[in-house]
Amino acid sequence: MSKRPYVLASAAMSLDGFLDDTSDERLLLSSAEDFARVDQVRAGADAILVGANTIRADNPGLRSRSGPDPVKVTLTVSGKLDAGTKFFTTGDAAKLVYAASAAVPSLASQLGGLATVVDAGDPPDLHRILADLADRGVGRLMVEGGSAIHTLFFAEDVVDELHLVIAPFFVGEPDAPRFVGAGPFPQGRMTLVETRQLGDVVFARYLAGQAVVDHRRLGEAVALADRCPPSSTFRVGAVITDADDNVLATGYSGETDPHDHAEEAALAKLGADSRLAGATIYSSLEPCSERASRPVTCTRHILDAGIPRVVFAWREPDVFVHAQGAELLRAAGREVVEIPDLAAAVRRANRHLPGLAEE
Ligand SMILES: NC(=O)C1=CN([C@@H]2O[C@H](COP(=O)(O)OP(=O)(O)OC[C@H]3O[C@@H](n4cnc5c(N)ncnc54)[C@H](OP(=O)(O)O)[C@@H]3O)[C@@H](O)[C@H]2O)C=CC1
Ligand SMILES: Nc1c(N[C@@H]2O[C@H](COP(=O)(O)O)[C@@H](O)[C@H]2O)[nH]c(=O)[nH]c1=O
């Protein structure tokens, strides 16, 4: 299977499962508190995707007040997109339009320098689109809909996480867009990991497939950092699993020597091991890309060990160096998954570091 970003689908629906009504006005389903949450989720995404019909219907800006704007992405078969819509005219982030082959030439000339138009095949191939996004450095993709797009993503079984909001009213119009239409959806139960009341709406967060395993193993890596001896550097935990999710080794910073990094301590227990070719390394912190204590970085150790998959919680902040572990690993073709939900706990475990005392 080709590499793809972590996909987070986000939708707000009515009690009867509609994303909108049939009026020309955009229907607000979220509460003010929920719109603030969505804004933060956007800030944590590398890119945000909506279907061409949502651009035509809502003219969304797709920006974030809480952080950097994500790259904007859309999909179209018809190529009917208006260069004057906010998707193209607002924000400095890159805009990507994945279009059916036949629509590419006219769209490219119509949009000029406003967006990059990418040939998505004929018919467009979602897996090709996701692989291209991964190649462009998109590790975390937020999919905001609408109905056809959610249906496509769930039917292709590429959703790792779902944020579903239920607003306390009915729409009751048969022609309004539903959260999803009919489709060959994955049949297993998703894992409910969080529910919250936000004003008058219910927010529910679900994980699916590999994301369930990744959150559990990354949680174990985060907990392992509690074993680190007192230190003036990062306190980190790491777990290495094989292709069947069996634990091969664990490690934590300072485990046998004050200079040990967690990933290094775990890898040192394995040596050359053929199981590493299908392994995942979970680390509470982004693997280091520069270090003073020893000559070989954890990014280099992971590359040399041949581990194809890296999952981490917290991007290394600029305390000692400007880290680039995630970028270097991605550039070397490794799959890198960032799970920021667990980052706050890792940050708390590192409050002893300069500049990190305050939340
Ligand atoms: N409440 C909420 O959370 C949200 C609500 N909405 C609502 O959803 C509605 C829009 O949903 P919907 O009408 O289903 O439209 P979508 O936004 O899902 O866009 C569908 C369009 O995407 C393009 N497309 C679909 N499948 C593919 C494919 N395989 N490859 C390439 N392009 C593809 C086509 O564009 P083209 O026609 O150009 O070929 C298609 O018409 C609006 O009313 C909006 O307000 C939207 C987002 C969130
Ligand atoms: N109506 C609705 C949502 N609609 C989504 O938000 C987009 C508008 O984005 P922007 O213009 O940037 O604010 C819109 O096109 C659609 O994707 N989202 C939600 O979480 N809750 C809601 O009730």
TrEMBL record:
Q: Quote the Pfam families the UniProt record gives.
A: dCMP_cyt_deam_1, RibD_C
* One Gene Ontology molecular-function label: 5-amino-6-(5-phosphoribosylamino)uracil reductase activity
The pathway it acts in is: Cofactor biosynthesis; riboflavin biosynthesis; 5-amino-6-(D-ribitylamino)uracil from GTP: step 2/4
Keywords for this protein: NADP, Oxidoreductase
Q: Which residue intervals define the domain CMP/dCMP-type deaminase in the entry? A: 212-336
The EC number of this protein is 3.5.4.26
Catalytic activity reads: 2,5-diamino-6-hydroxy-4-(5-phosphoribosylamino)-pyrimidine + H2O + H(+) = 5-amino-6-(5-phospho-D-ribosylamino)uracil + NH4(+); 5-amino-6-(5-phospho-D-ribitylamino)uracil + NADP(+) = 5-amino-6-(5-phospho-D-ribosylamino)uracil + NADPH + H(+)
Q: State whether keyword Oxidoreductase applies.
A: yes
The record's section on InterPro entries has:
CMP_dCMP_dom, Cytidine_deaminase-like, DHFR-like_dom_sf, RibDG_C, Riboflavin_Biosynth_HTPR
Q: Does the keyword Oxidoreductase apply?
A: yes
Q: Out of the domains of life, which is the source?
A: Bacteria
Q: Name one GO biological process term.
A: riboflavin biosynthetic process
What's this protein's function? Converts 2,5-diamino-6-(ribosylamino)-4(3h)-pyrimidinone 5'-phosphate into 5-amino-6-(ribosylamino)-2,4(1h,3h)-pyrimidinedione 5'-phosphate.
Q: Which PANTHER family match?
A: 2,5-DIAMINO-6-RIBOSYLAMINO-4(3H)-PYRIMIDINONE 5'-PHOSPHATE REDUCTASE, DIHYDROFOLATE REDUCTASE FAMILY PROTEIN (AFU_ORTHOLOGUE AFUA_8G06820)
| Similarity annotation | In the C-terminal section; belongs to the HTP reductase family.
Protein name in the entry: Riboflavin biosynthesis protein RibD
Instruction: Give the species this sequence originates from.
Output: Amycolatopsis alkalitolerans
